[in-house]
Every structure is written in C-alpha cells, then in structure tokens.
Amino acid sequence: MDIPWWRDAVVYEIYVRSFADASGDGVGDLAGVRERLPYLRELGVDAIWLTPFYPSPMADGGYDVADYRGVDPMFGTLSDFDALVAGAHDHGLRVVVDIVPNHSSSAHPWFQAALRGEGRERYLFRDRTNNWQSTFGGSAWTQVEDGQHYLHLFAPEQPDFNWRNPEVHAEFLDILRFWLDRGVDGFRIDVAMGLYKAEGLPDVGDQSFKATSPVWGQPEVHGVYREWRKVLDGYPGERMAVGEVWTDSSEDLALYVRPDELHQSFNFAWLQAPWSAPAFRKVIDDTLSTVPFATWVLSNHDVVRHRTRYAADDPVTGLERAKAALLTMLALPGSAYLYQGEELGLPEVNDLPDAARQDPVFFQSKGELPGRDGCRVPIPWTVDPPSHGFAPGGVRPWLPQPAAFAELSVEKQEGDAGSTLEFYRRALACRRDLARSIPYTLEWLKSPEGVLFFTRGPLICALNCGARPVRLPEHDEVLLASGPLRGDLLPPDTAVWLRRAS
Ligand code: GLC
Description:
By secondary structure, the protein is α/β, with parallel strands linked by helices. The chain has 14 helices and 18 strands.
C-alpha cells in the first residue's frame, strides 16, 4: 500500500487572525497567508491548517461560527479562499481547514430561529439545568426570555448542537462536501469528543476531559466519524481528518482513529508531558502501542507556548528545551503539528494589558485566568514597529507585540545560522529526506537516567533532560543537534540526530 501523505506530514497551524494582515485592519487574513506561502514552503512543512475564517461575531476568536459556508469579511472572501488553496497547492502545500461541529455561534440563523421558538431541537434547550460548567468558567447554561435554558460547553455565544437530531448530521455532511468541492485536503475537527452528551444530561462530580465522563466522548460520536469517513473516502486525493480529542486515556483516543473513522487525532499527552525523560518515554510508548498513525504536537493556539512551558522563568533554558523537544518530536514515527511562531522561538506573552485581552476565558473567569491571548500575539515578520511587518504601514495589530519581538522577527533570524528559524529549516529538511526511508517503528537503546536514546533504522535520536552531559551513543555521523555538542558529549537540554552505518 502506498503511504498516505498525512502519515509523516508536518502540518503548520495558522491562527489566521495573527499570521499576516494584508488588508490593513490589524487582523490577519487569507490574503496575508497567501503572500507568505513562499515562507512556508521554505520552512519545509507539508501542509497548513487554517483556524476558522468563517463569518463570526468573534466571541471565541472565530470558533463561534455564524455561517459554515462563507468567509468573514475580516478574513477576506470566498475567492480569496479559492486563491489561497490554489496557491498553496502550487507551492506543494496541502490545506486543512477547521470544522466546528460541537456548537455554532448564537448568531447562526438556526439559533436565531430557536430563540424565536423555531427548531429548538437542533440545540439542547431544557426547562431545567444540571450542574455542568462551561469549559471557560461559569454555568454551562444560559436562560432565554421564555424561561428555557440552552447548553453551551464553551461561551454563552456558542450554543451546543443536538447531535441526536438527524438534521444536524445532514447539515454537516453538506458542509464537508462544500469545502471538499473547493479543494481542501482535510479537516481539523474542533472538540471532536464533545458532540454527544449522555442521555438525560446527568449531574457530574468532575468535569475534566475523562474517557468516562457523561459530558465528553460518548460512544455515539463514533457514528458521526464513520459517516464523515465515507464522505472523505468518496473524494480523490487522500482527503483526511484530524480530531481535537481531549481525553485521559490513550485507549480512548485510539477509538477515534479506527480504520473507518478519523485518520488522526491530536496527541495532547505529548504536549502535556513535563520536561522529563520518563514522562516523554511513557507517552511515546503509550502512543505507539495504541494508535496506528501517531501524531505529535508541542504548541497550539490554546496552550502556553512550549518555550515558556518548559522553563517559565528562564527563557534561555526554555528555548534550548523547546528546540530539543522539537528535534525529538520530528524523529518520532508519525506526523507532527507545528504552531505558527514556534519556529521563531516565540515565548508566551504574559504581560498583555487587561484592556487588550480578548479571550472569553479571561472574561468568564472574571480575570482570574489570563486566557489564551498570550500565545496568539501576531507574528513579527520584520524588526519595525508598530506591527513588525504583520500589517502594512503604521497599522497596529489586534494584540500588542512586546518590544522583544523585533529580535525574534523573521527578518532578524533569516540567514543567521544560529537562529531558531534556521534550525527549524534544517531540521525539517533533514526530516524530509529521512521520514519515508526509515522504518515506522522505534527501538529504545539503553541510556543513562534522565536521557532517551532511540533508533529508527539508521537514525538515532538522543535527548538529554538530565542535569549532566552524557556520552553520545555509538554513531558514524552527527546529522543535526539542537544546540552545541561538547565533543562526544550531549549537554543537558539538548537533542541530537545521529546516523550509524549499520
Ligand atoms: C477548541 C479550540 C478552542 C476553542 C474551543 C471551542 O478547543 O481549539 O480555541 O475555544 O474549541 O470551540
């Protein structure tokens, strides 16, 4: 069997409103992405994933969709979308779009009709509520004028659909076809484990993402993905779907990627693992023993950037670890998802002024939680303020960039062999040469405490999470290291790719 493109693909997440603004309104857009396609090709990724660009009141950065078949004027037009897909394909890049099936925006015509008392069975209206909480804080129920309440697992502006209603199924099959007909190569499925809720909506003690929760991961959800898989398989060109599945068990995760369901699901256990060799090793073993096609991800638009996560108070160590984790991730069997800006070594921006914050998490927690804006600060392309090349001329970006972004800009890093950007380019180029010629399987080699050595055919990857330098495993050639080696020693917070002849 031919290996499908997505099996070892490196997919680059574009948080559209923060990537590049061509129109000059301070918000990123589709035309901005199109202008940067040469950059993405040069970076060496295989595909881009676009976060929602659909018409939306932006209560949750576009994850509140008012029209599933359009483009918000803030992001452009459908022709801009078509031009972007065509341009991406010309650059050898596949395009994955985000689909948000758990909830719509409260501005969606179906919800507006429901407020008028028409078609409430498309959502989850009840006379009485239960004790469920919104993921963003506060009750998961909002009362409407006539006294009924509707369920929203996220913001009140994001009412949950009733997936027990066949009309919802039909609508989403049509939406998938709409975008597949326009040439998309795949879908990223938002809150993929959310769609069904346990019958009777029982109260819960603990609302975290658990395989056994009545809120998440009900068995009926798998029927949806079987329907979707048939649609995807009906199109030529290996169209795929990757699920955003938060759960506490790798066995549960594996259910979503059975052969007749989704092609991939995000592996958040990898991103949640602390900076620790045994923790990393456990996730790798659990993943490879449970799912047929592994994926790996370190950062996305919902979590603290991994440079900051690995060493909150020490940006230098944070960056060393971030690069070492990247090199390790790229050596693992399966596909890798990158988040825009990690190739520049961007940190989480923790000191955004409250007045600038836009994430509903900040508002629903009444300012107790900072929310996710800190990983969504627009990309610095050049050294020049006020937007560092993110927007034209003197336009200010929708979130302020810290002054330190000038030093981290693409302009500053391009061509500097010691920069994070050039390191990413080298790593992705090296991986591209290797990925399909080495076995999908991985073998562990004996290693000192706090260190991982594994091999895939001729490739050896070594990662030092410990406090002391360790001797490199036997090898014939050093391919690439995330930081300087000391002779035959691998320093702490460093990873290396080695080749051995046999
Ligand atoms: C997903 C998205 C996140 C959004 C939430 C609700 O987790 O990644 O950004 O807030 O779903 O749609």
